[in-house]
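Writing this down once: the sequence line spells out the residues, with the fold written below as integer tokens. I am pasting one below:
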Amino acid sequence: MKLKDPLYSWDSATGVASCILTYEGQTFCGMATCAPEDQDMMSEKTGLTIAESRAIIKLMCYYREQVLAKLAALNQLYYSMKHSQRFNVKSYENIMLQRQISNYTYELAAIRDEIAGERKELCTYIKKKDEFYQSVRKNRTFNKFKDLKVDDSQLVFEYPGELKAKDKKE
């Protein structure tokens, strides 16, 4: 596949990243938007990586549809040849047609595996980023309260047993 260089765009004000791929005159756009709860961790690199992966998935789906169309045409040709009265199984044309059908069948299986792999990789990337963001937020919260000095006079918590005893006295 011949691809032109991808075009990347990042809007830091809205947290929107986009990637545009061009293949055989077709344009494929992948976009990523930063979730509102992740605004504190907004990253251009992360957004562009996700956008590029989504554009690649769209491109591979387009390519898969092209291979499917070619395979369907070859299968239709084989079907027409097979039902001819002069059909020769050992003819050069039939052997070459069978070879082409086999090649496109393998290519279709490979592209389907690639699409599934890219989708899984994208999901894993997003999941790992989310886990990382959660751990950073947890550490930020922990560090915020780590240096906090509190003496016993500031505590307002009473144990449930103390509350029951206090209620009985009143």
